[in-house]
């Protein structure tokens, strides 16, 4: 197998740097393709996107737009440019779903508020004497009956909807296996495309623009703008998690795939060439991808501590009941 790969490599005259850049880029592309699925599924099951910060998504989109523009102008590695374009598409999909659920849930909340106010105004004169006892609160028996009947129907509901509220005993292990699968699929995808000739080099390479040309300067400005957006995007999400002391509504695999995508994306850009001129113009992309890894680690820490605090609160509630 290794001999075959080396033969193909030699026949197509690709350098080791280009091979590594292609493999890392393919893994990163696989991670970003799969990135949306965990969070989209989480939002769909909860019928809500309250766990996500809309500022986080908006700034992320601005960063991806600047990233794509800068990659096109500067002439980065093909995988980097392809990923930048996919980032924009994925952002729009996730933002659209989040806005949809936010609008729908806000409308339902207003309807519930109006319904509650109308019921209270109609029943209040007749039910005032019953307020002396907490067990005789208006509608308490009715709500208890409805809740009891819904709890009895919950097993049937799960059968037809396919929902399962059983907590994952080891989510970190299962998500790690998913990330490992991304690495395997991404690397295999590159080798397949490599063998069919998708990575053959052109006969003559185009001359790269000078680092002092207006095009290169514009690309650098866009690159640094995207890096700044990436570094700032996760701050609102971190603050939101801290204020709520919860990561409910967030998919852990979403951020694990983001970490994988950022890491391999940076490695793809860096592996493409180590020439000083190329490294200088690639600095903003390296900063934007590798710099956000630190912020992702903060979110992982929040998952860890807030899941423990949530479990402790649940245990206390069960004991009190």
Automatic annotation (TrEMBL):
Name the record gives this protein: PQ-loop-domain-containing protein
Organism: Hypoxylon rubiginosum
């Amino acid at each position: 197998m290794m001999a075959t790969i080396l033969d193909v490599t030699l026949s197509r005259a690709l350098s080791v740097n280009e091979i590594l850049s292609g493999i890392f880029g393919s893994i990163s592309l696989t991670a970003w393709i799969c990135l949306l699925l965990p969070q989209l599924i989480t939002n769909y099951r909860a019928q809500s996107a309250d766990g996500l910060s809309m500022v986080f998504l908006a700034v992320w989109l601005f960063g991806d737009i600047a990233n794509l523009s800068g990659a096109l102008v500067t002439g980065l590695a093909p995988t980097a440019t392809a990923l930048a374009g996919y980032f924009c598409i994925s952002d729009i999909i996730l933002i659209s779903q989040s806005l949809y659920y936010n609008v729908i849930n806000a409308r339902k909340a207003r309807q519930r508020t109006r319904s509650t106010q109308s019921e209270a105004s109609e029943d209040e004169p007749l039910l005032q004497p019953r307020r002396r006892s907490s067990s005789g609160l208006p509608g308490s028996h009715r709500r208890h009956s409805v809740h009891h009947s819904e709890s009895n129907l919950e097993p049937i509901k799960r059968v037809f909807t396919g929902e399962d509220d059983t907590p994952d005993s080891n989510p970190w292990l299962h998500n790690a296996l998913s990330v490992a699968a991304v690495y395997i699929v991404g690397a295999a995808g590159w080798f397949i495309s490599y063998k069919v000739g998708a990575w053959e080099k052109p006969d003559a390479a185009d001359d790269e623009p000078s680092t002092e040309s207006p095009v290169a300067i514009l690309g650098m400005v866009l690159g640094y703008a995207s890096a700044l957006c990436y570094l700032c995007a996760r701050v609102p999400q971190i603050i939101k998690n801290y204020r709520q002391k919860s990561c409910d509504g967030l998919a852990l695999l979403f951020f694990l795939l983001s970490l994988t995508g950022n890491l391999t994306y940076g490695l793809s850009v860096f592996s493409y060439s180590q020439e000083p001129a190329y490294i200088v113009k690639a600095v903003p992309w390296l900063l934007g991808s590798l710099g956000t890894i630190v912020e992702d680690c903060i979110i992982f820490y929040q998952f860890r501590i807030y899941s423990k605090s949530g479990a402790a609160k649940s245990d206390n509630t069960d004991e009190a009941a």
